[in-house]
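Hi Y.,

Following your request, here is the sequence exactly as I used it, all 142 residues.
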Amino acid sequence: MEPSVIPQPCRRKVIRLLTYAAAVILLFDLVASILSQLLPIRYALFSIGSFAIYFLVGLLVARAAGLKLGVVAAATTGLVEATLGWAISWLVGPGRFPLEAVRPAEIVATVIMVILAPVVLGLVGALIGQLLKRRAPAAGEA
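Below is the corresponding structure, written out as tokens. Let me know if you'd prefer a different format.
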């Protein structure tokens, strides 16, 4: 079997984890958007929760399917948040901003952050996931 081929049980687990990750990040964006509208909390402060989700996705998928897929899964979760999550926050309110009020450099910096944050945090999570996987006793060992 080629190293790039993912065994079927592992593939199902990765798809399930990615589906959960997408649902969790979108639900998180919805709740964060609503709370930032109701309470005196800046929406940007909720990015800490997004970062934690990217980290956990990288960790969990890496434990199930390896380092590369852990990073890819975290990046995919970031893509979901940057597109559908942004749409949710725009509909609720905190994601709306007048385009003329934003400088091009700010847009570029935001795009870079949206791309790098999930990759970096997913990589850290994936590395830790791989370490934990190596330390975990095999089935039947105690």
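Residues 55 and 94 are 24 Å apart (CA to CA).

Thanks again,
Q.
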